[in-house]
Design goal:
The chain has about 200 residues and is of the alpha/beta class. The chain contains 5 helices and 7 strands. Strands 1, 2, 3, 4, 5, 6 and 7 form a 7-stranded mixed sheet that branches.
Length: about 200
């Protein structure tokens, strides 16, 4: 046999060729499954376009919202049911649902002309917060050093768990960035509604 030519009757060569075929088949199958999964989901994009949001801080009049005592505008509120098959309640207006998250938040949403988005059911609170923060692309170090901040986590309404994410804009850059709410009561530690 000439040097440099591999014989297909060589058992080692057959094993290598077989492994290459198996690996290529496995890779092709995974790519095909991913494409099918993406085409089935085909739902609306969950990305939040920050440059398209109002470029102003909190309004001077009306109820005020503070994040760690910094006045902010609620630019976007994202709501999602907990659980893949969960649904947001149609009978409860968004402002009333938001009151369960933080008393007085409904009036703030109206005053700030907040963009409200509904996301599909989420498997876990942690998965929701990761997806929410990933959808934002906040400037700086996850919003730190910019006017943008975000808060996401779970809350309960009518004894059912829901998930919420708020995109917030201050008047001036700050060091707040992103915050995760792990327990319902933490919303009250982070946010405060004040009447002007």
């Amino acid at each position: 046999m000439e040097q440099g030519v591999v014989s297909l009757t060589d058992p080692t060569a057959l094993v290598v060729v077989g492994l290459v075929i198996v690996i290529l088949g496995w890779t092709f199958r995974r790519l095909l499954k991913r494409q099918v999964r993406q085409s089935r989901s085909g739902g609306p994009s969950l990305a939040i376009d920050l440059p398209a949001l109002p470029a102003t801080g909190p309004p001077d009049a009306g109820p005020q919202l503070e994040l760690y005592h910094v006045p902010v505008r609620v630019a976007v509120l994202v709501l999602a049911p907990a659980g893949r098959s969960g649904q947001l309640p149609e009978a409860i207006p968004t402002a009333r649902l938001a009151e369960n998250l933080l008393p007085g938040l409904g009036a703030v949403l109206d005053s700030h002309h907040t963009l409200i988005q509904s996301w599909p059911g989420q498997v876990s609170s942690q998965g929701f917060t990761q997806a929410f923060f990933a959808s934002l692309s906040l400037p700086g170090d996850e919003g730190k050093g910019s006017v943008w901040s975000a808060v996401a986590g779970r809350f309960k309404a009518a004894n059912q768990p829901f998930l919420a994410g708020l995109v917030l804009r201050a008047a001036t850059p700050n060091a707040i960035g992103c915050a995760v709410v792990k327990h319902d009561a933490e919303w009250l530690d982070l946010l405060r509604v004040r009447e002007s």
